[in-house]
Amino acid sequence: MSISDEKWNPARLIPTSGIKGAKEQETRATSALLSVMESVPEFGKSLLKRVGAPAGKIHCFVEVPFKLPNGVVVRPDGAITVSGRGKEWTALVEVKTDRSKLGREQLENYLDVCKAQKYDALISISNQFSPIPGVHPVEVDRRKIQTVGFHHLSWNAILTESVLQHEHRGISDPDQAWILGELIYYLEHPSSGAMHFDDMGPSWVTVRDGARNGTLRENDPGVVATCEELTRYLGLTLGRQLGADVQQVLSRREREDYSLRRAQLVSELANHSSLTCTFRVPNSVGDIVLSADLKSRMVSASVSLPAPREGRPKTRMNWLIRQLGQAPENTRIDVSFEGTRRTTSELLLNLREDSDQGLDEIKSNVPRYFQVALSADMGSEKSSGSGSFIDSVTNILDEFYGDVIQNLKTWAPRAPRLPDAPQEAQEIAETTPSD
Fold it and tell me: Which of 198, 202, 256, 282 is 20 to 30 A from 115, comparing alpha carbons?
């Protein structure tokens, strides 16, 4: 029997076997990531760009000791330097894996080291998610980050950046591409400690039931922070599949002061028993609105797009129906019209059979906007898996994008045409001998 016939595990550059305990898991993940950042400059540069580092030669170190003013020795998990154009940018790195959480006191100690050493930044890495890029999941004394950059990368964000660089942007050197592929394999393995989002947290059941029976109030402790993490996870995961930078849509004020967004989430959950977020995919037909209605136990995804500005009303409707050839029959289309507030809705199944079915308004009104929506039953369990809330939201987003969004194009008017050539000119052209 040949070796190829045996189910033997191939040798890996970064082995997942033999990890004993949380500390070894954390140490191996740190060393693997930092060494690949240094060995594959295209990847290291793209990842460090997220935390404001300049372009240059990357050097990485692990287990770097420092003494605090009180004599206590602290040991951040790593350090990164970027050298170029006569300047050096330096950041300390603190890493957590699995379910370990970053601690405020530890982070503030490392911020003190950065300030004392005149380093540029502190980068934390864990399975916690930033609500949006630039917002750290751990609040620290703001006086400590006045002169020191304070950044966070989730393992999911690092995996996303790895896949984007490896699969979509490309690595110029084949050996370096193989090295980055080994890091991707490692981070995707359960033993690495780089976890996916798989639990809505201990407050989920209380919040879920309170939203359903109307007893939830804005001052109740709840699941808002976890929902923020879920939103970030969904955007990163979709972006990794598409090879694109998928962003949550927020107003300028919400980006400047994220407490406004958090207050909106709390109010919507307490007063309307729902959670809503909006994603923007580059070059797609429109923003995707993802919503979970805890009272009706439904999740939905929708997109709005303007109707064509030419043709008969029914022709404009058919323009949309033809693009939804891969969409499920239970896809709903809502139509708003020019010059009236009235709207109408119908399932795609009925419209495929007859675009007038259930849409009598079409015969006498000109469509202005279409909204295409897909709904499904909401999972209720807090952990991922069959029947979970996380999986139901993830599945509706993936299905909606794959069957609807990626097949839709915005309408564009036809280019103006030249008038037909005069008969005399045509006759001259036909009788002129060719060379």
Answer: 256
360 or 120: which carries more pLDDT confidence? 120
- The residue type of 48 is L
Which pLDDT does position 434 carry in this prediction? 43
Phi, psi of 70 (to 5 degrees): -85, 5
With both helix axes pointing from N to C terminus, report the angle between 174-188 and 41-49 in degrees, rounded to the nearest 10.
Answer: 60
Give the E-state strand segments of 137-223 in sequence order. Answer: 149-154
- Residue 283: how many CB atoms within 10 A of its CB? 5
- Per DSSP (E only), the strands in 313-432 are 332-337, 343-347, 367-377
Domains along the chain with CATH numbers: 21-191 (3.40.1340), 204-407 (3.30.930)
- 3-state SS assignment for residue 152: strand
Q: CB within 8 A of 70, min separation 6: which ones?
A: none
Band (281; pLDDT cuts 50, 70, 90): very high
Asked whether the beta carbons of 269 and 291 are under 8 A apart, the reply is: no
- Tell me the whole-structure pTM to 2 decimals: 0.80
Q: Which of 91, 102, 99 is nearest to 137 (CA)?
A: 102
The burial class, CB within 10 Å (0-12 / 13-18 / 19+), for 92 is: buried
Mean pLDDT of 130-156: 91
What is the pLDDT at residue 228? 83
pLDDT average, residue stretch 34-54: 95
Amino acid 355: pLDDT: 54
| Residue 213 burial by Cβ neighbours in a 10 Å radius (0-12, 13-18, 19+) | exposed
